[in-house]
Amino acid sequence: MSDIEITKYTGAAGGWGSMKGMSKVLPREGISPDLLDALRRQNKPEGVMCVSCAWGKPAKPHIAEFCENGAKATAWELTRERVTPEFFQQHSVTELESWPDHDLEQAGRLTHPMRYDRATDRYVAASWDEAFAAIGAKLKTCDPKKVVLYASGRASLETSYMYALFARMWGSQNLPDSSNMCHETTSVGLKNAIGSPVATIQMDDYEKCDAIFAFGQNVGTNSPRMLHTLRDCVKRGVEIVNFNPLRERGWERFTDPQNPVEMTTGGSTRIASQYHQLRAGGDIAAILGICKIVIEADDAALASGAPRVVDHHFVEQHTVRFEEFAAYCRKADWSDIVRESGLSREAIEAAARVYMKAERVIAVYGMGITQHRYGIDSLYMIVNLLLLRGNIGREGAGPGPVRGHSNVQGQRTVGITEKTELAPVERLKELFEFEPPTEKGWDTVDCCRKIIAGECQGFVQLGGNFLRATPEHAAMREGWAKLPIAVHIATKLNKSHLIPGEESWILPCLGRMEQDMQGSGRQAVSMEDSFSHIYGSVGKATPAADTLLSEPAIVAGIAKAVLEPNSNVPWDEWVDDYGLVRSAIENTYPDKFLNFNERLFTPGGFWKGNPASHRQWETESGKAEFNVPRALNAAGFADAEGRFRLVTLRSNDQFNTTIYGYDDRFRGISGTRMVAMMNRGDLARMGLKGGDFIALESDAEDQTDRVVEGLMVVEYDIPAGCIAGYYPELNYLIPVEHHALDSHVPAAKSVPVRIRR
Ligand SMILES: Nc1nc2c(c(=O)[nH]1)N[C@H]1C(S)=C(S)[C@@H](COP(=O)(O)OP(=O)(O)OC[C@H]3O[C@@H](n4cnc5c(=O)[nH]c(N)nc54)[C@H](O)[C@@H]3O)O[C@H]1N2
Ligand SMILES: Nc1nc2c(c(=O)[nH]1)N[C@H]1C(S)=C(S)[C@@H](COP(=O)(O)OP(=O)(O)OC[C@H]3O[C@@H](n4cnc5c(=O)[nH]c(N)nc54)[C@H](O)[C@@H]3O)O[C@H]1N2
Ligand SMILES: [Mo]
């Protein structure tokens, strides 16, 4: 950690600031020819797909089709540093467990399969054969229904398909994905409302929209390449209305690093034309206000014979429950709307005017919507708003969730799911002749409960840092230490590896940037972006060590060690040639992956299709569904004296639990991550000021003691009653039962807390 500095950042997103951000991380990790080549080929047809976010890769890319954070992620993977068997000899596991997340990953790339040795409290090297044999022997003593096979959203479609197939052949459907902590609210909510669990828009819809409504997504940090798209929209006169408790710089102003005029003159483009700082969880009420205005304007139009405001042809033909929803909106009380949203009636009216004027509206959203107790209801409100004016299922309009990990959506597409109805059970039976499990597997919340209760017999993670990313961190650590076996397929060391249970293994794999040579030659892998476009990706960098195996090889190694041979599943041939895995994917999902190998390198990716985008509604009613929200505020707990809503979010210098550094540039916070961003009035009321240290403690109904100490107060432009701080440091404070209804996404954006000095 360097010196702590709190300043106000006045720059735009992008621009020289992003160059400086890169220039801090890149040299430290080593600027090699491999890194430069990977960046040059990043996100381009026939190139390599970025390991950072899931934003689309255009058919006609920019010269540099990468952003500050994509470059950091690439440098992080292609670092010069190595974590070798000697490293583990020097550092005991108990010692390593005390290292900050940043230092663990900064130590470099894992090079050898490692087994935990309790006698010396060290990880010791093993051969791959020993590793697979020991893991297979131990897993075979476990009940597959009590073993978790987690995936973190980065591994390719090929690996993910093999992993899910292995789990089901073994008899487990405990296949949670990072999506369970992320956009599962989208998967459940959009499916219920419009019959399609993902964005209905594609990248070129942004060229046709005339307004964008954005909720709870931090574009400048988490999907910076999207800023180019937004900038082009603004230049066309598109109005962007943003809702976020924090003023996130990316939604305010952007300087295009590829525009010499903007770069030399210090110019920038204004992004949002309206910025509404609502309370955490205030989206339901804010959108209700807009809908109320739309419906009342439509009522007035009907009475006076003026043109209708609601697209009533669409509503009659394509939707159900409009009348119920309209009645709910008419009855809604402005004082409730204003109180729960934290916005003035005038602000909501201004947003409604943009909505009613626009012909084609896209709604963008992220974790600020999905990670709430009533996150599904917030999402339903977004859908309701869009449906009112027929803004789904035509060009330039529709919901556009911005997904997280670079292949998180794709992992779900090829079978990593705990839900039987989403698994191709019949097809798998036919193709591979086995009986797949049909009872629902464990989602992330179930896994946490089972781990805490000591009822989980084993945990395999395909990437990720489950222990650190999940809620209820203190109890999770205790449970984690009791796991009979943990197997980590990983590129870098993290906390999940360092609280070993009875048996623990680290299996180091190739990263996506690296050349993957197998029996049939250099391999390509594939992934799916936020727009359901699928791309091939070819790594060319020299692998971090010649002892690494690819992810498909590791999954096949474990599968062969656990399963009885099945002549229908040629694990070795699949590892030799990933094209055969793609053929298996095509055979399993012919509608989405037709001619998969032939189309692998389609510029701009090939689209797997989406029924709702042409108004085919695969819902229970066969129509798009209006939904009346179950609560007026998404937080799911009442206001009380001294109770705050804690928002846990990402800094500009991290990728989830991977911490690149301590500089959250746009928020002006540098040198520490242990902060509580607080409203000025709240501080005055409590007799606190910036620089003071406080502790936060849980204020959940269950009265369990949860506390994080040593947080520095930062006076911040945030609504009263809300506090913001960083994930994963604050995950101690989130009760495991504080999760979104229906989707079970941990409710990390409104956590009930109190201040303790
Ligand atoms: N560089 C980088 N890129 C990433 C990641 C990363 O860590 N680093 N993570 C990846 C992953 S897995 C994901 S899921 C995405 C995450 O990307 P985001 O969806 O942007 O997630 P967060 O950073 O958690 O920020 C959520 C935003 O919601 C706002 N917010 C909080 N509560 C509310 C609310 O109640 N209402 C509204 N309207 N807004 C609210 C916060 O202020 C914040 O701006 O990014 C992906 N891309
Ligand atoms: N409080 C709070 N908690 C949250 C969130 C929040 O906003 N607030 N966000 C949630 C969200 S949206 C998500 S997606 C989860 C993220 O949870 P995870 O996906 O589980 O966590 P990551 O930090 O992305 O995982 C990082 C690790 O992945 C491994 N890794 C990196 N690249 C590769 C690779 O190519 N192959 C393999 N096999 N391993 C690799 C490295 O070992 C690295 O240490 O966290 C969730 N937790
Ligand atoms: Mo995510």
UniProtKB/TrEMBL annotation:
Q: Which CDD domains match?
A: MopB_CT_ydeP (cd02787), MopB_ydeP (cd02767)
Name of the protein this chain belongs to = FdhF/YdeP family oxidoreductase
Q: Where is the Molybdopterin oxidoreductase domain?
A: 109-412
Keyword Iron included in the entry's annotation: yes
- What are the protein's UniProt keywords? 4Fe-4S, Iron, Iron-sulfur, Metal-binding, Molybdenum, Oxidoreductase
The transmembrane segments are none
Cofactors, names only: Mo-bis(molybdopterin guanine dinucleotide); [4Fe-4S] cluster
Source organism: Sphingomonas longa
Q: Which family, according to the similarity comment? A: Belongs to the prokaryotic molybdopterin-containing oxidoreductase family.
Judging by the UniProt lineage, the source's domain of life is Bacteria
